[in-house]
Design brief:
mainly alpha, Arc Repressor Mutant, subunit A, Tetracycline Repressor, domain 2, 10 helices, elongated, Homeodomain-like_sf, Tet_transcr_reg_TetR-rel_C_sf, HTH-type_TetR-like_transc_reg, transcription
Length: 208
């Protein structure tokens, strides 16, 4: 993110930056965050904060940029790894979203998603489903179901006493999405990706 701007004196770093604002916002519950609370965390005046971000939505856009950067796998999905890629993406969302109080609940609520950061997330996930053999329409639908399903599960964590383990939920979700409409059969490499996911779950490396 660009951290230039402001009227800092030459040779002295600006007291505020987009990075510092996002870091401070991530230190508490983003669902209840106020601009005044954020200014207090940063040790700046309310008016100084508004010189960098227009409002609370602007702060949450910065947070979303950071979160999407954290969860996106570094490699690109292809026809060999697409299901494993989506599994790694979902687990990264699980780990990172739950590490920030209120973030999963914020994302699950209807609101204006940051078009640049969430657009990157959407495009990469759609590319994964396309690599698995889905056509454009189905890949778009699969992304909507995948994103909504994962985020809704994360938002409900702690509120549903008998919620299924995330590994089981994710396995069922991806099994359903790895099937074409009607009688066209499964997407490519369905078994390979599921075997890798099963190995990961049985190894005990993940916990809810």
């Amino acid at each position: 993110m660009n951290s230039t701007g402001g009227n800092a004196r030459p040779g002295r770093p600006p007291r505020l930056s987009r990075e510092r604002i996002a870091e401070a916002a991530l230190q508490g519950d983003v669902a209840t965050l106020t601009m005044r609370e954020l200014a207090t965390r940063l040790g700046v005046s309310h008016s100084s904060l508004y010189r960098w971000v227009p409002d609370r939505d602007g702060v949450l856009d910065l947070v979303s940029e950071v979160m999407v950067e954290r969860v996106l796998p570094e490699d690109e999905p292809d026809d060999e790894n697409w299901l494993d890629w989506l599994t790694r993406l979902a687990w990264a969302m699980h780990d990172e979203f739950l590490a920030v109080p209120g973030y999963a609940a914020h994302v699950a609520r209807p609101h204006r998603h940051h078009p640049e950061s969430f657009g990157r997330l959407r495009d990469r996930a759609v590319a994964a489903f396309r690599a698995g053999g889905a056509d454009v329409r189905q890949a778009e639908e699969n992304w909507a179901l995948f994103g909504l399903g994962v985020v809704r599960w994360l938002a409900a964590t702690g509120n549903a006493p008998k919620e299924p383990p995330f590994a089981r939920y994710l396995d069922l979700l991806l099994r359903g999405l790895a099937c074409r409409d009607g009688d066209r059969g499964p997407l490519r490499h369905q078994g390979q990706g599921q075997d890798q996911d099963q190995d990961q779950r049985t190894s005990g490396t993940r916990a809810t």
